[in-house]
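Researcher: Predict the fold of Glutamine--fructose-6-phosphate aminotransferase [isomerizing].
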Amino acid sequence: ALVDKGEHRHFMAKEIHEQPEVVGHTISAYLDPVARRVTLPEGGLDFGRIDKLTLSACGTAYYAGLIAKYWFETYAKLPVEADIASELRYRDVPYMPGGAALFVSQSGETADTLAALKDAKAAGQQTCAVVNVPESTMAREADAIYPTHAGPEIGVASTKAFTCQLATLACLAIGAGVARGVLSREEEERLVGALLEVPRHLAEALAMDEALRDLAHEMSGARDVLYLGRGVSFPLAMEGALKLKEISYIHAEGYAAGELKHGPIALIDEAVPVIVLAPKDALFEKTVSNMQEVMARGGKCCLISDEAGLAEAARGGELWGRVPVPSLPEGRLTGLLAPLIYAVPVQLLAYHAAVAKGTDVDQPRNLAKSVTVE
Ligand code: AGP
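Model: C-alpha cells for Glutamine--fructose-6-phosphate aminotransferase [isomerizing] follow.
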C-alpha cells in the first residue's frame, strides 16, 4: 500500500503525530478495556514457568527493551538480562533451562537481532519476538510473536514503532506479573486502567509541538547535547540522544543522571545543553539534584517534567528550557506511563533541531531503515 505524508512535511512528523492512534491499536490487541485485564495471545510465552528472560535488540528497539527490563522486574519480579544483539550473539551466554529470550524489532529483519534469536533458540530457549512486520523473518523464526500495530514506518528514525513496542512490552510485563502471581487483580486493573489512558496523554503531549520549536532551534546550534534520566528515564535519555544524532548530526549522549559525577560532568559548560527527563516518579528528587549540580557548574539545563515538577525544580535556579508534559498518576503508575509520554518531547526536539539544520530528516546520511547485513 502507498503511504503518503498527508499534511506533514516529513514522514517522521506524520509518524510522531500518529502515535495516539497506533498506540491505541496496539494496546487494544493486548488489553480488555471492559474487564481491565491483560489478554495475551494463545501460544505465547508461559511467564508463570519462566525463571529468566533474556532481552535483546538493536538501536531504538533495544532502548524499548531496556525500559521493559525495569517493568518486568517491577511488575513481574522476573530476572531480566538485556544486551544489544551485536554483543549478545558473540558472547558465550550460559543459557539455562527454563529461560526465555525476547527480541524486539520494527522490521523483523535486523541481521544481528535475527542471529541472536537463532542462537537462543538453538540453545534451547523459548523465543519470542515483538515485531512490527508480522510476515518478517524474525516473526517466522520465533516460537511466538507479539505484533506491534504501528503500521508502516517510513522515516529512518524510529518513533511510532518505539512507542508501540513500549505499549506491547508494558502489556507483557503486566501479563507476566499476573501469570507469576505477583500482581493482584486490583493491581492489574489499576495498571491496565492507566495504560488505557496513554493515547489521551500522548495526544495532549503532542500539543506542545509548536512550543518546542524555538527551544529545538536554539539547541540546533550546539555541538554536543547531554540527556539525563534515572530508572525508566535512563534508556529514554539514550533514545533521545540517538534520535538527535541520527537526524540532526549533533553529537549527543544519554547518561544515567547518577553517573554524571563519574566523568561526564567534566564536559559541562554553557555551550552544552543538558536535557533532563524527570517524571514525578520515586526518583524525581534524585534527578533534580543531579540537574542542580549541573546548573551550579554553569550548565544550561532544560527540564522535561510536569507542571508540579517544573515548579518544584524552579527553586533551584534559572532553567534554560522548561518543557511541561501532562501530569501522570502518582507512584508506580508514573514509571509505567512516563516512557511512553516523555518519548514525545524527546522525538519533537530531535525533529525540530534537524529541520532547523536543514538535514534530510526522513533519510539521514549513512543510515538504512533496516540493517540486514552485519
Ligand atoms: C532508530 O531510530 C534507528 N534507525 C535504529 O536504531 C533501529 O531502531 C535499529 O536499527 C533496529 O531496527 P529494527 O527495529 O528494525 O530491528
